Amino acid sequence: CHGSPVTKQRRFPTKFMFGAATSAYQIEGAWDVDGKGESIWDRMTHMSPGFIEDKSNGDIAADSYHNYKRDVQMLREMSLDTYRFSISWPRILPTGMPNDINPAGIAFYKNFINELLKYKITPMVTLYHWDLPQKLQELGGFANPLISDWFADYARIVFQNFGDRVKHFITFNEPRETCIVSNMFSSFNGSAGPEPFNKSTNIVNYLCAKHLAVANAKAYHIYDKEFRATQKGQCGITVSVDWYGAHTNSPEDKNAAELKRQGEWGIFANPIFSTDGGFPKELSDRIAKKSAQQGYTKSRLPEFTEEEKALVKGSADFLGVNHYTGFLVSATVNKLENHVPSLADDIDVGLIVPQEWPKSGADWLTLTPNSLYNILHQLKAKYNNPVFYITENGWPTTAEFNLNDDDRITYYRAALENVLDALDDGVNLKGYMAWSLMDNFEWLGGYTQRFGLYYIDFQDPARTRIPKKSAFVYKHIVNNRYLDHTYQPESMTMTID
Ligand code: PNW
């Protein structure tokens, strides 16, 4: 070969879907307006404000219930193809049950979806993003196996009402956070957690993992049998996947890292996406052994019956991945001192975060080199390359007013470079959604952690949205389908192209 090598400019495919994501409780506000029922997050923040960093709640949040047209305008400003948002179960079914449908709730989402479609923005709808109807929690929530029927009934109502215009449904956002972390976050281990969340971590967590998998499967099969032929859409699930690498090359550390992966995401993805179905074998063996040592007559991890296994296997059209960060895993260093039965104790490994990984405004999140590429690579190999969407990815800053969010820009550029690498590798990745469209109620962090591409002052009654620098950079990437690492916006004035 002669001549100077020409490096081909890598581009995102024209059909690749770029978007942004939010969830109902974090943005909508209007917590008791127009017939909405109470959710567990309404109850918890009202009853136990001390558990929230700034003692705030989502009563008003970004007030998207009243500002949804402005939200759509922001999506248009950034030229985004898609918007991932969630439906509040108690807004459309105030008691959680299908006998009582709130017409104002249905109307709100219809108007909102129509507004998106008017501007050719593809809605991607999450059915459950943690705001369980309080009435269902009082019946045991995810500890009760009937949750799968309650969820299936709710899902049918969502498909019936919105499936003519929504072609991408996500049953659950992050089973790990629903069952393990937010039941409630692991530091509440034992009895110290806030009402009304379930408390016993060692049993409830695993019941939830199973019941949620069955709930997803029932909803999926309803979509498949009753709606797919006419609506022609897809129904998937979103799992949170951090990257876990081995701390050293020792076989012990490599095994520890693999076991950690199975405990963090295999437990939720394996029953649906593996060829064998069921929980990951090594993990269930481990939990059975630990349970026996602890004197239980049965494993704390409830196995699926053969019938359930078959129902759950293959019950998703795509794997949505929320990815933020990574850790190194050790079989010997930083191990737990507290041996209260729990998933963490069952796995029993140590985590290490190297000093040189840049820190964010949240203690759990660092910029971990190549983590997004690494997890896609692992998931592709493990589950035979299903259709993927990155349904969340983002970087938190602190609450102070700063529109020049260069650290967020660095994070997004690194992540999108990983997306291009994954596409080069043949990963079946169809889209990428930034978390989040705007600053919002960050759960236990309240309004102290900001993930938005748009800034919001939560003291301002109008909840004015102001684009951060990252919004301009993201828009430039989306418009050009090209990752320019040096681009700087000329001004901070947004327009719609
Ligand atoms: C996701 N972790 O939650 C949620 O889906 C969003 O609602 C949330 O706002 C966003 O990430 C940012 O936190 C996670 O500790 C919460 O690893 C915690 C973890 C991961 C995801």
TrEMBL record:
Give the GO terms filed under biological process for this record.
carbohydrate catabolic process
Task: List its EC numbers.
Answer: 3.2.1.21, 3.2.1.46
Domain of life the protein comes from: Eukaryota
Q: What keywords tag this UniProt record?
A: Glycosidase, Hydrolase
A matching Pfam family = Glyco_hydro_1
Record's catalysed reaction(s): a beta-D-xylosyl-(1<->1')-N-acylsphing-4-enine + cholesterol = cholesteryl 3-beta-D-xyloside + an N-acylsphing-4-enine; Hydrolysis of terminal, non-reducing beta-D-glucosyl residues with release of beta-D-glucose; a beta-D-galactosyl-(1<->1')-N-acylsphing-4-enine + H2O = an N-acylsphing-4-enine + D-galactose; beta-D-galactosyl-(1<->1')-N-octadecanoylsphing-4-enine + H2O = N-octadecanoylsphing-4-enine + D-galactose
MF-aspect GO terms: beta-glucosidase activity; galactosylceramidase activity
Q: Which family does it belong to?
A: Belongs to the glycosyl hydrolase 1 family. Klotho subfamily.
Entry's PANTHER family?
Answer: GLYCOSYL HYDROLASE (PTHR10353), LP05116P (PTHR10353:SF36)
Q: What is this protein called?
A: Cytosolic beta-glucosidase
Species for this entry: Chrysodeixis includens
